[in-house]
Amino acid sequence: MDFVTPINSAARRVPIWPLYILCALPPFWFLYQGLTGGLGVEPIKALEHRLGELALQFLVAGLAITPLRRHLGVNLIRFRRMVGLAAFYYVALHLLVWLVLDVQILGQIWADILKRPYITVGMAGFVLLLPLAVTSNAWSIRKLGPKWRQLHKLVYPAVLLGALHFVMLVKGFQIEPLLYMGAILMLLALRFKPARRRQFV
Amino acid sequence: MAYRWKNDLTHADVTPKGLFLNRRQIIAGLGAGAILGATGTRAMAQEALKPNSYEEITTYNNYYEFGTGKDDPARYADALTTAPWSVTIDGLVDNPGEFSMEDILARMTIEERIYRFRCVEAWSMVVPWNGFELSDLLNMAGVQSSAKYVAFETALRPDEMPGVAYRVLDWPYVEGLRLDEAMHPLTIMATGIYDKPIPNQNGAPLRLVVPWKYGFKSIKSIVRITLTDTQPGTSWNKAGPNEYGFYSNVNPTVDHPRWSQATERRVGGGLFAGREPTLMFNGYEEVANLYTGMDLAENF
């Protein structure tokens, strides 16, 4: 496992706060593209899909951090909060675009949340992520103690709901959402598998 | 018979050819009120309509044989060979056979039809089609009196259609109409858009356009037309029988199980485009008498 040591030592040297800025920037670029024709002739849907897909990608990346350390010894744990908050940021923007640009009509928003299973599922995932985003700070970790760890297990059902939301909304038999679902199920399953080697060697 | 349905206003009336590709202020009235008698919907149907730009119509497409992304057809459909092309017309007809595109075009009268186009996904466009009435083609083949339905089939070319490598749908794409729907003067076979040959991503060289039905009924790149006495299978109905019915008439009161059909967004309005109410039969209320006595929620 020669590749692990250089990755770990490189990861230790990367400062984290610029990554927050880097992750926050793309939506502004998308918005600019949407205003100037770069997202095609139907920019609202394009924006919505791009933000939703990035949210799922950050969620998958967040889920990968623990198995990477347990099974390969690659330690990216110091990026986990940043990745999780970025995921929440993209989920929230995805929801905002749906509310403000896509549906727009308040009565229809409520009807959709209650009546359309894929929207109910997506909303439920967002609601589960809310307390996690709110408690993603050192103060909450100290205050909540062991309960913090329990609380943050909510990310597992939230990610599953996110993937299910994608699976449910496509027309016909499409592979892409199933790939996300498969990757998430695999990453969750790895948590039940005992680590192959001692940690913190 | 050509010219049975009349655009209230066409580009030709208002703009010299060559100017209208970029012209965005074309106002076209819709509706056949003038020839079919005034109805309560006439005011609605005559609401000013601005056709979408050529770019909008040809870059935002659903043609899953070339991929499920909206830009996939514009990117990949170039690979489709559309000449030579022939259409097999068979089943309950007097003159079955394989007809070349040249042969068909020589016998049909091409006219312009400016129609609303409403996708089942709740977006819409206004498209200035060029084409001929399907009834003219069917009459050429001689429809037998026992025929009740028309089945259509899209070309299936795995070498030219990257999307068919995935079983998104059960290829080839098939569609169908009841014979009276097929013979209705609004139902056309399109061969062009904005007086240009129809681009591959829009269904070259020959596609169906049924403006009062959701867009997926308007099957593209047709290679076979079969007259039958039983209701033919249709691709989306087979993929999701509870979501896509055989009729699939545009109906704001019957929702898709996963989303509302009450409103739609006109493509081309940019990032802040609002939604507008969807009209019964997509505004073509003159077809209502085809469905007299039918429960349209049950026969969705």
Describe the overall structure.
The complex is a heterodimer of chains A (201) and B (300). Chain A is mainly alpha-helical and 201 residues long. Chain A has one domain. Helices cover 76% and strands 0% of the residues of chain A. In chain A, helix 3 (26-36) packs antiparallel against helix 4, helix 4 (43-72) crosses helix 10 (155-169) and helix 4 (43-72) packs parallel to helix 11 (176-189). The longest helix of chain A has 30 residues, at 43-72. Chain B has a single domain, classed as Sulfite Oxidase, Chain A, domain 2, CATH 3.90.420. Helices cover 16% and strands 21% of the residues of chain B. Chain B has 300 residues and is α+β, with helices and mostly antiparallel strands. Chain B contains 9 helices and 12 strands. Chain B is globular. Chains A and B meet through helix 3, helix 4 and helix 6 of A and helix 4 of B.
Summarize the structure.
Chain A: It comes from Puniceibacterium sediminis. The complex is a heterodimer of chains A (201) and B (300). By secondary structure, chain A is mainly alpha-helical.
Distance from N terminus to C terminus of chain B (CA atoms, Å) equals 29 Å
Uncertain segments of chain B of ≥5 residues (pLDDT<50)?
Answer: 12-46
Which bin fits the share of residues in helices of chain A? over 70%
Total domains of chain B: 1
Distance between the termini of chain A: 12 Å
Largest interface (CB within 8 Å) is between: A-B, 29 and 31 residues
Which sequence of SSEs, written as H and E, runs from N to C of chain A? HHHHHHHHHHH
Question: What is the fold named in CATH at topology level of chain B?
Answer: Sulfite Oxidase, Chain A, domain 2
Report the principal-axis shape of chain A: globular
Name the structural class of chain B.
alpha+beta
CATH class type of chain B:
Alpha Beta
EC number (chain B): 1.8.5.-
GO molecular function, one term (chain B): metal ion binding
Cofactor (chain B): Mo-molybdopterin
Pfam families (chain B): Oxidored_molyb
